[in-house]
Amino acid sequence: MIKLLLAEDQGMMRGALALLLGLEPDFEIVAQVGEGDKIVPRALETRPDVALLDIELPGLSGLDAAAALRQELPGCHVLILTTFGRPGYLRRAMEAGASGFLVKDGPVEELAVAVRRVLAGERVIDPGLAAAALSAGPNPLTPRERDVLSAAVDGATVADIAAKVHLSPATVRNYLSSAIGKTQTRNRMEAVRAARQNGWL
C-alpha cells in the first residue's frame, strides 16, 4: 500500500481528496492536516510514502513544510497540489525538494498517476506551468527584499516594517526601492502584487 498524507486547509476539499484517493486500491490515507505546522509532526508519526501539500496553509506554507520534510523524513516524496500555478512557486517547490507540482483543476486520475510516478522516482510537473517557469526566469528578489515586501503586504508603514524585520527605516526604504525596481512597478503595493503573482513571496 502507498501511504499518503494530505495537507489542505479547506476541510471540504481535504475530505473530497481523501475520499477520491481512498478509492484507489493501492492507496491508504494515513494522515490529514489543515495547518502547515502539523505536517512534519504527523508525517513523523505516520511515515507516509507521499505527502500531498497545498502551498498556502495557516502556520507554515507547504513550501516551507516540503523543505522541513526533506530534512526530517527524506524517504517521503512531496507532491505540491495547489490552486496557484505560479512560476515562482514551482521554482521554490523544486528548490525545497518537491518531486512534483500540479494545479488542482486537473482530473483525480491524473493525481493518482502522479503519486505513483513520484514514488517511482520521477519528477511530475504540470507542463504548462513548467513552460511558464522557464520563460519567467529566476526570482530576482534577495531573501531580505522578500522579507521586507512580505512585511509590507498589509500596507504597513516603513516604521512598522522596520520593527517587524529588525532593520532601520532607511535600510527598509532601500530594500523597498530595490524591490520596486526589480519588479518594474511604481510603488511597494504594486511590487507586492507582482511578487505574489509570480510566486516570489
Characterise this structure.
- This protein has 201 residues and is α/β, with parallel strands linked by helices.
- Helix content is 51%, strand content 14%.
- It has ten helices and six strands; from the N terminus they run βαβαβαβαβαβααααα.
- It has helices at 11-22, 39-46, 62-72, 87-95, 108-119, 127-136, 143-151, 158-165, 169-182, 188-197, and strands at 2-7, 27-33, 50-53, 77-82, 100-103, 124-125.
- Strands 2-1-3-4-5-6 form a six-stranded parallel beta sheet, sandwiched between helices.
- Helix 4 (87-95) links the parallel strand 4 (77-82) and strand 5.
- Helix 2 (39-46) runs parallel beside helix 3, helix 7 (143-151) crosses helix 9 (169-182) and helix 8 (158-165) crosses helix 9.
- The model has no long low-confidence stretch (mean pLDDT 89).
- This is Response regulator.
- It holds the Pfam family Response_reg.
- InterPro entries: CheY-like_superfamily, Sig_transdc_resp-reg_C-effctor, Sig_transdc_resp-reg_receiver, Tscrpt_reg_LuxR_C, WalR-like.
Question: How do you describe this structure in short?
Answer:
The chain is of the alpha/beta class and 201 residues long.
